[in-house]
Design brief:
This protein is mostly helical and about 130 residues long. The protein has three helices and no strands.
Length: about 130
């Protein structure tokens, strides 16, 4: 006696594919959220560094300019100038650090998996159509 397993109907196969696609879309959304969250945190740190650079420039102007004017007697202006240069260098370093950390790009892992999942879904539809 030969036992045959009942074959799934086209409707059942289509329902399975739809269910798999729904799960896949749900996972893609979760991946996109996670990736965008990571990107937002990185960019927040970068923008914070750039804002700190702006604050240092403001402090340098607010401190060095009055000191330079008050100390504008022989031999004192060099000290005030050096003080301002140090602040400007610090501001430049903070700005460059922030700019190097800033990432404005598409979520690459999500795009990659979307392409893979599209190919998978097309293969599933083609193989179930036979």
């Amino acid at each position: 006696m030969q036992t045959t397993e009942p074959k799934a109907t086209s409707r059942e196969l289509a329902a399975d594919v739809v269910q798999d696609v729904q799960r896949l879309v749900s996972l893609e959304v979760m991946l996109a959220r996670q990736e965008l969250k990571e990107l937002a945190i990185t960019n927040a740190i970068a923008l914070g560094s750039m804002a700190a650079a702006g604050m240092v420039v403001a402090i340098a102007l607010l401190v060095a300019l009055p000191v330079a004017v008050v100390e504008a007697v022989p031999w004192h202006w060099q000290a005030a100038l050096l003080w301002a240069v140090v602040y400007f260098v610090l501001a430049g370093v903070l700005y460059l650090f922030g700019r190097s950390r800033l990432r404005l790009r598409l979520p690459t892992r999500t795009l990659e998996t979307l392409k893979e999942n599209k190919a998978w879904a097309l293969r599933q539809l083609r193989s179930n159509g036979r």
